[in-house]
Amino acid sequence: MLNLRVSSKKQAKIKLALQGCAGSGKTYSALLLAYGLCGDWTKIAIIDSENGSADLYAHLGNYNVLPLQDNFTPETYIEAIKICEEAKMEVIIIDSISQCWDNLLEYHANLQGNSFTNWQKITPRINAFMQKILQSQSHVICTMRCKQDYVLSEKNGKMIPEKVGLKAVMRDGIDYEFTIVLDINMKHQAIASKDRTSLFIGKPDFTITPTTGQII
Q1: 92 falls in which pLDDT band (50, 70, 90)?
Q2: Pure H helices in the chain
């Protein structure tokens, strides 16, 4: 049954990505953001694929942790999201979705036959995972590991490597799926690289606090 209704911001659940290098503070920032979004630690769940990093901040409050135990298939992540939804979690943090992509790349590398056609076995699985995130009735914050990208530039006849920004360990173009993408640097400051809400785009670097979540 199709129903037409008036648009309402109350209906929108934020789908946000935090990307940064190891040590930039993605997990901590995600937890502060989540608390700002719902104001109740017991309504926050963190799906942990990072070897217990979710428990490092237990002093913040009584949030919930769902460890993935070295099983990082898209299907495992989907099952974990379902468990959090059934527990009526208002904010689900997935820390990180890069582990899922690593798992799929390893699976693809071990497949026999044509590398190109073998992607047909991978793409539907990552698509199903992303659809689960986008269709969730909870706010979802995903963290993504980044690696520094370099290019070789010629200077005075020498080829010099230059930093050209961060590349997330995830499928190319994944940022299109999210409402907001915040890049976190090693000083733990964030800047919006994508923002459909227009709350942060064009703003200077800032430190993520619960207020950030409240603003959203």
Answers
A1: very high
A2: 26-38, 74-86, 98-109, 115-118, 123-135, 210-215
